[in-house]
Specification:
There is one protein chain. The protein is mainly beta and 171 residues long. Helix content is 12%, strand content 49%. It has one domain: Pnp Oxidase, Chain A (Roll), CATH 2.30.110.
Length: 171
């Protein structure tokens, strides 16, 4: 279904309406990382969520066109790094024109015992073991069992809202 804005006589598709609605849905910015075929992989994302506490698990939704799609859907373990409000440069590095190992040029990166890269100084880093994935439309939903959690600093995440990065404001 689509609508017509009487004021502008502009026809809008449901997908565009959804996109505009989701711009109002503030989300924490994360960098998803993996170690696969002797290479580090990284991608900025917001489509991440907790799945359950028993067993502790998270999910990440990834577009088929993303470079991290193949590593994650073929079983690579991964890490979800929640960025601090001051880590916008890292978010910018991990999407767009910068590719491959160059995405790790910002920030202090380390490796978990399983080889998965994680960001030192992230708000939180969740080292996950690949469990399964589900294909849906243009994306895959990748489920990981949380094996390790690292926390750092006060709660001050980088937020993506209305098409740009911002900081959370405490009430």
């Amino acid at each position: 279904m689509s609508t017509i804005d009487i004021a502008t006589q502009k026809h809008t598709s449901l997908a565009e309406e959804m996109r505009q609605g989701l711009r109002r849905f503030g989300k924490a910015v994360v960098v998803v990382t993996a170690w696969h075929e002797n290479k580090r992989w990284a991608m900025t994302a917001t489509a991440v969520s907790e799945l359950c506490m028993d067993p502790p698990s998270l999910l990440v939704c990834i577009n088929r066109s993303a470079s991290l799609y193949s590593p994650l859907t073929t079983g690579a373990n991964f890490c979800i790094n929640i960025l601090h409000a001051e880590q916008e440069a890292i978010a910018n590095n991990c999407f767009g024109a910068i590719k491959g190992e160059k995405r790790f040029s910002e920030g202090c990166w380390d490796s978990a015992a399983c080889g998965t890269p994680y960001l030192r100084g992230a708000q939180a880093s969740f080292i996950c073991e690949y469990e399964q994935h589900v294909e849906y439309g243009t994306h895959a939903i990748v489920i990981g069992a949380v094996k390790e959690v690292q926390l750092y600093g006060d709660v001050a995440p980088l937020i993506y809202l209305d098409g740009r990065f911002t900081k959370a404001v405490a009430a």
